[in-house]
Amino acid sequence: MPDGMHSLDLPALDRRTRAEVAHERHGLGRHRLGVVAVDGVATETGTDGNCRCAYANQPRSPVQSTVQWVTHACPRYRPQPGWVKQRALDWSLVPVVMPLLDLIVGYDCNLGCDYCTITQAMRRRALPAAAAAEALAQGRTDGFETLSITGGEPTIFAHLLPLVRRAKALGYRDIKVQSNGLMWAQQANVDRAIAAGVTRFSVSIHSHQRDTYHRIVRRDGTYEAMVAGLSNLVRASVPLSADVIVMRQTADSLTEAVVWLDALGVRHADFWFVSLTDGNASNHDSMPRMTEAVPQMRAAFAKARDLNMQVRSLHVPRCLLAEDHTHAYDPASVGVRVVTPDATFDLSRSRLTGQVHVPACDGCVHEPVCPGVRQDYLDRYGDGEIAVRRGQPPTRSGVVKMPTV
Prior knowledge:
The protein is of the alpha/beta class.
C-alpha cells in the first residue's frame, strides 16, 4: 500500500522563464537558443544554434523579460557553432520550457487496459526505491526542476510519497503524478499527496462513457472511482489535466468527452493517439486511420475553444491537423529524460514518439518542429495520408492499403 494512502478494493508543461535553463547540460540533438528582444525584433544567439526549432507552436502569454532561454529537443538538426540570426518574432509563439525528468516507478497497474503497451512480463518489473532516489538526485545535479512520476500505475507503489517528499527536498519545483485516478477517489489520499509535495495531477480517463471505460480497462466498478478522483482533484483546486486515448472505441465521442470534462471542472486535456507497440502490437483494430480520427479531433478542439479549455493533440502530425495544428504537442520537445526499471533514455528516442519523416515531409512548413510519425503507424497504414495532404505520391504502403477513389 502506498505510504500514507488508503487502498481501494479494486503533466501542463512547466513554462517558467528562467535564465538558469541556460546552465542545463545538453545532449546530442538538444540545442540552447538565447532569445533577446531589441526594439521589437528578436535576436537569437547561441554557440550551438543553426536550428529552426525555436518556433514551436505552443501558445504562451507575451513575456516581459528581455532575455529568454529556449531549450528543446530537435530530431533533425545538429548544432553548428557561431549562429546568430535576427527576425521579427511573435513572442506568444516562443516556447520557454524546462527539461522534464519522467520517472517510471514500475510497470504494474490495478487496471488491465486493452490498448496498453505494457506486457505481462513488464508488469513484474519495478524501479527500486534506492534507484529512484538516485535518479532524482542526478536529475537535480543535471539541472532538472520539473518531475513527472508515472508507471504503470504509480499510486500502487509503496515508495510514491517518500519519493515525492525527496523530490521536494531536492528542489524540484513542479512535481506531477500521472495516474488512472482511482486512488484519488478518497479525499484523504489527495490531501496526503499535496502535503507531500505533488503540485499537479494528470488522470487517464480512457473514456468518459461508463460502458466504454469498463470495456477498455477490463475492470468493472472502477468508472465511479475514476470520476470521484477527478472530482476530488477539481475541488482541491490543483493543476489538473485529463488524458484521453484516441482509439477506434473513443474517436467518435471526443467532443462529448470535452463537454463532460468541462462540466466536471477539468480545464485541460490531452488527446493521445493509440500506439501499436509491445503489449498492444497485435491489437490492430484499436488504431484507426488518423484521417478517420482527425475530423472528430478537430470538432473537439472547436468545442474546447468555445469552452475556453486547453486541449492538445499528441502523436498526430501537424499537417494532418490542418488549421488546428496549433493544438499539436510533442512531449519530447521540452527535453525529457525517461528513467524506467530497464533503462534511462531521452524521450525523443522512444518508439512511442514520432521519429520518421517521410519524403512528403520535405519542405513542409511544420518540418522544423514536427518530430514526424511513429514507425508503428507507418507499418500499419504507410505514408499515404501524409503524402496526399502534401500533394505528393505515397512512398510506402502499410499492412492496410489506402482506399481506392
